[in-house]
Amino acid sequence: MSLFNLLSVSASGMAAQRARAEVVVENLANSETTRTPEGGPYRRKDVVFSSEPQGSPFAAVFQTELSAGATGVEVSEIRQDTRPPEMRYQPHHPHADAQGYVAYPHVNPAEEMVDLMGATRGYQANVAAMSAVKDMIAKSIELMK
Fold first, then answer.
1. Residue 1: what pLDDT?
2. H helices then E strands: how many in the chain?
3. By the 8 A CB rule, do 102 and 86 touch?
4. Fewest CB within a 10 Å sphere: which of 2, 35, 127, 142?
5. How far is C-alpha 80 from the chain's CA centre?
6. d(CA 100, CA 78)
7. pTM > 0.90: yes or no
8. SS3 letters for 53-95?
9. How many domains does the chain have?
């Protein structure tokens, strides 16, 4: 496997973890949103990853033969929570129904923070992998001098 191909794999992981973090932050920001433009409360979202074959953008320049087994990750879809909303009795709330209940999204801030920490650590792991590959490339160039 080419070292440049490894950079592409780590870059795809960084992009996927960034998308995951964005969705988690959106969930946290809307944890108390009772009305959206579509109507009803905000619906929690989850990112679904899938594997994706990776190639090196530098392959043509270096004329290397890349192995077909290198796979990265991509965001295949963003799913919305399909559970019914959480109902809270708040009769004086402007969005309360006839019985005095307000529909809230199913967003648990503690779970979202753990998910955000996981996305951050996944991103950091990909940065560390890219840094190691960069060091290997620099050492290879130094050896060829």
1. 57
2. 3, 4
3. no
4. 142
5. 14
6. 32
7. no
8. ECCCCCHHHHCCCCCCCCEEEEEEEEEECCCCCEEEECCCCCC
9. 1
